[in-house]
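re: that complex we talked abt at group meeting.

here r the seqs, copy pasted straight from the sheet so there may be weird spacing, ignore it
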Amino acid sequence: MTNTITAITTGGRDDSWSRLLELVGRERDEVAFAKLFAHFAPLIKGFCLGNINANFPPDAADEIVQEVMFKVWQKSPSYDATKAAASTWIYTVMRNCRIDLMRRNQRSTSDSGVLEIDDIWDESAEDQAYVYLMQANNEAMIQQSFAQLPHEQRQVLTQVYMQDKTHQQIALEMGLPLGTVKSRVRIGLKKMQILVVNAVGNRDEKM
Amino acid sequence: MIHYHPDDNLLAEYSGGSLALALSLSVCAHIQLCVDCRQKVASLNKIGGALLNLSAAEPSTPGNFEQLMQRIHQQPEVPAPRLAIAEHNVDPMLTHLPKVITKLLPAGRKLKWQRVSSVLKTARLSTGQKDYEVAFQCISKGGKVVEHDHGGLEVTLVLKGSFSDAQGIYTEGDFLVRDAGEIHRPTATLNQDCLCLSVVAAPVRVTGFLGKLINPFLSFKPA
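got the structure back, here u go
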């Protein structure tokens, strides 16, 4: 059982990025940060260019890359490789930056809220400890199974994650009933075994 | 034990970042109370990580990294501490709330409660958006709220105590979604006042006497 758990927590994940990110957080290691930048900046830019719309002009991509990597530097002390792979953690930083940017573009200056985006999409580690060890999936498996999904499921999930679209927007744009979009998302999640929740209480016995 | 959760579609929209801010706030408060949904969201986030890995790499503009390092070196290393949560909120009803809800409490002053009826009071919360009204609803113990309907989608998250309606009993952490037109009549349980977070979509504004008659529960005013 111990082997299985090791495999679950570290197996398949390319941990060199996660280790580099930990170094950046712990030691403020600029060489490690340069390596992360060289790898992730082009991916962030590519990801953002997949989402060009009125609120997100193409020339914003470089700006986003900088903003995301700036936040990665700032927040890295709270990164914990046992809880998320570097790519997932950086995704959440990027998602929050995009929400923040779009909100700033949309709202009037008088309309300032007390909440920050990071309060609502809160990935801070301190109150989320102990939950992550027993997850039955990892990024490599998800990446693999995502590539194998039927086109229609891959398509809606891509829109949910890369183009910040609500199910309702996707339904309107694709001319599909809302229920169809919802079920495509759910079937896709099921096939990737995303929502397999393990009983947290089982952990202690197995370790 | 939490029995009512946001559905998987809502969690996916939250994880993807497209869910409206006010709804995301209610999902966030729920996952700060619910271990299972927290784990689901952590899992859903991995789709984002996988899609980032699968993205077509676009070379960054030369000089981008140097510019960033310059910015980092100019920035003080420790970010300014956030304002402490208002010490003035000694109301026991407002202690031990999810972190994100605590951030909504006005700093340094008391919440402005408005009495809607003898058993129901409400306090609007400022969230910097206009699509949904976000408010605390507090039903006195044993109180029955008049039967009402909402103009649009309504999310209710139980924060303290419990209430029931024709469909069930809802306790701390329960997350309920009702569509426009579903009429209900919540009743708080006898032993304790019930505090809920409510997020209601902006309805088409009906003015005048008739409007008040149609929707006596809430007069919508986004904050």
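couple things i noticed - Strands of chain B lie at 114-115, 120-124, 132-139, 154-160, 163-165, 168-170, 175-178, 187-188, 194-201. Helices of chain B lie at 8-16, 21-31, 35-54, 64-74, 99-102, 208-214.
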